[in-house]
Write a structure and sequence with these properties.
homodimer; 427 residues; 5-stranded antiparallel beta sheet; 26 strands
């Protein structure tokens, strides 16, 4: 707990109890105030966006010693690159400005008019220029489910899985923002019982419920790992991630070098990056790790966060979305600190704005499985939907809606949502 | 053949017959003229660099209608983004300026002094900001060798290999320039006969002889593939690539999502990007593809380039490098056009400056194998070196030198070299 995430804090901006964006949250994002103005950085509070470019320009953040114009940039990378202390101080100043007992912004109608914009009037953008995107595979339940389907229960987990956070490099260029339609990809696959592959639209379209973190701080020098004890200083905050997956393309292509076309056509993320400071009150212990990990993956502070996650599906026939999965970030076996330490153990350099996703977050119960592949058990147990239809995998026109929040006492620290509608393949 | 790659062309700058950089080549690179001046773009000719920022500023490229200051940028991305016609015209103008019968630059001592810099006086930089880096696996001989070692001769090639150019997403942040020392990585591996993994320095360090191309032209819209007939317009040119590999880390980590830590610590490239225009006279047929590839991978113009490749090793005891591999780019089964068409078939967007490497380029003979893994057949047949030592894999202090060129009649169009010395792991 610190001065910015105290549950008793109140803002002069009214925030409903079920809002994801009380003063305790203050997630960062990038937005264009109007279609003709350049994008800049802001924080979300209730149904408003605070324009940090304006706030910094006004001199109200001067004691944080941030680089001039850092929030006037069209991405958060420059702010993410700042030292942890500078970022903590900036958050403290921003939080202070929004408190109900602080008149500076509250009582200055002109400044409020310039700096506080209704969220429905702005256009959100990707929060960062993502230099490299990495995707881990850190849910034991998900890895076990997939392994069981493809290799049987005895060999479900690969021998390495309990010893290291398995991950692979993903495609940064096709990371898209919440609300972006996703076109069903065409590609190469081997139909069941066929001996020759075919080219055509993916038939087994899936989502994956994930979360991702953005890298912060100075780039580590090539050859110099970030020790697990220093990882928190290099993690900016988290977003929701939908790792769209073409299962039939994946099945055919993935050996021996891993998923490629099956994942490179789109990865959707939510627009507001919730900082570790805002998540701090919801820190909790990760699952017990047995066998104990090697020294470079061990830390006294190894911990995770209690973040409730939901996936809803809205077919073209539905008027409201139907929840099809309830999971939790804390189910993940490997923590984000361990992911970052493992990623850099070879000396791999990571840069502010890099994104690392968790892999599908499944729990023990079937209702918590984070993909259609698992929910329908590879299509053998179709999901029965409220509109009377059933789903083995996604159909054209389906909208996938992921949301997540931490439940405090009378308030929520949330991530908003990441939505995407599946369009038919090009003819 | 066009007006820029005619073998009869001569420059007023003397170029030796064995030089890689005659007027027919004119590869692009990024350099800082002095440590205090900002990097900018240039072309190499003989032992000189032509400063294209100066040339453009002087107005000599005006008819190419390039964006103002495109060569004053510290990377080639903006030039790579230009339309193919504009790039072709720029090359024609630059080539014209350097011809022996063209007085504009030749007879202007002041301009020559500003624009033509001895290559040993400048500092080279990475040619582009690499947004995404992809590594293919397109040599049938290499895939067969590795498959034979790990799965036996019968199952050497995976069932998908002859149907698609297998590839995976790599790490862009750790692509480094020729001459950068590479530190032996630490990581997690399973020692032979052990049941538990250990953490420590990689013991099986390797190189991989590869080439890579840079993406050019306008970014394709997400969801819209680049058809194979249009791929040449989206390929800027090629460089040499050393894909350093930690074989023991790779062996333990790679299932089921592919190589990760084993490859993310460094990938070295040569500084000069040789354009497709310069390579055109050396275009040749790729190996026959049987079975014939699916429609989206088929093209009348499917072709490759005859580029001789060599790897040399210089141990700390040697005074000159020893050649340990002679291969050729034309051995690759899958062409760069097919790689790009396959990469985007799902609608994956590619951006100017993205880099795509070939995978290890091995030929049929043992002397043409492009990695230590193959040359020493997994350590079972150590290489005997001229200094009396032997090598199963790389040792600390070893320098790996890769070079490549097209042999014309009395001239070469070459890539220079990519060198890297292996440093000991951090204590």
């Amino acid at each position: 707990m610190d001065a910015t995430n105290d549950p008793k804090l109140r803002s002069f901006i009214p925030v409903a109890a079920e809002s994801h964006f009380p003063i305790q949250n203050l997630p960062y994002g990038v937005f264009a105030p109007t279609p003709t103005e350049p994008p800049r950085c802001g924080v979300r509070i209730g149904d408003f966006v605070l324009d940090l470019a304006v706030i910094q320009e006004t001199g109200l953040l001067v004691s944080a010693s941030l680089p001039e114009g850092v929030f006037a940039a069209p991405c958060l990378n420059y702010y993410m690159a700042c030292a942890p202390d500078a970022r903590r101080l900036a958050r403290l100043l921003i939080s202070g400005l929004l408190r109900e007992d602080e008149p500076t912004l509250r009582d200055d109608a002109v400044l409020r008019g310039r700096a506080l914009l209704p969220v429905e009037s702005v256009t959100m953008q990707l929060p960062a220029e993502i230099g490299d995107y990495t995707d881990f595979y850190s849910s034991r339940e998900h890895a076990t489910n997939v392994g069981t389907m493809f290799r049987g229960k005895e060999n479900a987990l690969m021998p390495n899985w309990l010893h290291l956070p398995v991950g692979y490099h993903g495609r940064a260029s096709s990371v898209v923002l919440d609300g972006t339609d996703v076109r069903r990809p065409r590609g190469q696959m081997l139909p069941p019982d066929a001996t020759e592959p075919v080219y055509g639209p993916c038939r087994l379209m899936d989502f994956e419920l994930e979360m991702g973190f953005f890298v912060a701080g100075q780039e580590n020098r090539l050859g110099e790992p970030i020790g697990i004890g220093r990882t928190d200083d290099h993690i900016f905050g988290l977003v929701l991630v939908n790792d769209w997956s073409a299962r039939d393309i994946q099945r055919w292509e993935y050996q021996p070098l891993g998923p490629f076309n099956a994942k490179n056509f789109a990865t959707s993320i939510s627009p507001w990056v919730v900082t570790l400071e805002a998540l701090e009150p919801f820190r909790c212990a990760p699952p017990k790790q047995d066998p104990p990990p090697l020294s470079y993956l061990r830390s006294n502070r190894n911990s995770t966060y209690d973040i409730q996650l939901e996936v809803a599906l809205q077919t073209e026939m539905m008027t409201t979305p139907q929840t099809i999965c309830r999971s939790n970030f804390k189910y993940l076996y490997w923590t984000i600190q361990q992911q970052l330490a493992h990623h850099t153990v070879t000396g791999c350099n990571v840069r502010p704005g890099d994104m690392m996703a968790s892999g599908t977050i499944s729990g023990a119960d079937k209702s918590s499985y984070g993909s259609m592949l698992e929910l329908s058990w590879r299509g053998t147990e179709p999901l029965q939907l409220d509109d009377g239809s059933e789903r083995k995998f996604l159909q054209d026109g389906d909208t996938v809606i992921m949301t997540g929040w931490c439940q405090g006492d009378g308030y929520r620290v949330g991530f908003g949502s990441v939505n995407g509608t599946l369009l038919a393949a090009t003819p």
